[in-house]
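Supplementary notes for students who missed Thursday's class. We covered one full example, reproduced here. Read the sequence, then the structure, then the short commentary at the end.
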Amino acid sequence: MNIEKILNKIGEIYSPLSIECQQEIIANSKISTFKRGEIVIREGQFSKKSYLILEGCARAYYLKDGKDISDWFAFENQFMVSIVSFFSNKPSPHYVEFLEDAIVLEFSIDTINRLSDKHHDF
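Structure (token representation):
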């Protein structure tokens, strides 16, 4: 995957990004791959990463009375994260699972906070 194409797509879908912001994203994120069925966050864990799905899809779910209940799905060009845990630094009430082999752009909470503070276009 070409990071410049990814950043252009982010600019088209969400908001145009300044050159400076793009350079910091390149320096502070990474492209990762996950296999179908891979769980990247479990209930009770702290979520420290957010994923922009480039290829594939994922779901967030929780367990109730022994059944898993899907809360939401994320597809290509959408973000997936355990929102409660990621933004409030609390244990996750959700599991996050990739439903297909996936390629993602991975951001840490520190990167998101730094980019948000420094680059309002982000």
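Commentary. The chain has one domain: 3-118. The beta strands are 30-34, 39-41, 49-55, 58-64, 67-74, 79-80, 95-98, 102-108. If anything here is unclear, bring it to office hours.
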